[in-house]
Write a structure and sequence with these properties.
Number of strands: 0
Number of domains: 1
InterPro entries: DUF5518
Strand content: under 5%
Radius of gyration: 19 Å
Keywords: Membrane, Transmembrane, Transmembrane helix
Shape: elongated
């Protein structure tokens, strides 16, 4: 059992440090998803429902820093890491708000509102997630380059 656990830990570390596009997107999307869940829960307790989108920024920065290829590809990895959680968590959030609002407004109004949100707001939210993830990837790539450049020269 301990051997299997150490092998799993070694594989996780190897995937983080591999520098491949898929690993960068995977780990960026995981971090982004977790931060989005935390942010969603925090905005539920606040008086205003303003959402910053720091999950996309941090997830994109992580993807940009982890990817070992060219800068343009790192920006694509950050964009994917920022958009994937919106594409996955968006319908779940919509379903949760649909069930909550159906008790108040009636099912017909909620279904109509949800269809409009799904067709209009969902693609826009995914696009903004990709944009913020790309900006985060640029920042993460720049920080990674600066930190490794200083380590190489020391």
């Amino acid at each position: 059992m301990a051997h299997q656990q150490s092998t799993l830990q070694d594989e996780i570390v190897r995937s983080i440090t591999s520098g491949t596009f898929a690993a960068a997107v995977l780990w960026g999307a995981i971090v982004c998803s977790l931060l989005n869940i935390v942010e969603y829960n925090m905005t539920g307790h606040l008086t205003s429902s303003y959402s910053v989108g720091y999950g996309q920024l941090v997830g994109g920065a992580l993807a940009g820093a982890l990817y070992a290829g060219p800068r343009q590809e790192a920006l694509k990895a950050g964009s994917c890491a920022g958009a994937v959680p919106v594409l996955v968590l968006g319908p779940i959030t919509l379903l949760l708000t649909m069930t909550e609002r159906a008790l108040t407004f009636g099912i017909e109004a909620v279904v109509f509102e949800s269809i409009v949100l799904l067709l209009i707001a969902y693609p826009v939210a995914a696009g903004f997630g990709a944009l913020i993830g790309g900006i985060g990837a640029y920042i993460g790539r720049w920080l990674s380059y600066r930190l490794t450049k200083k380590r190489r020269s020391a």
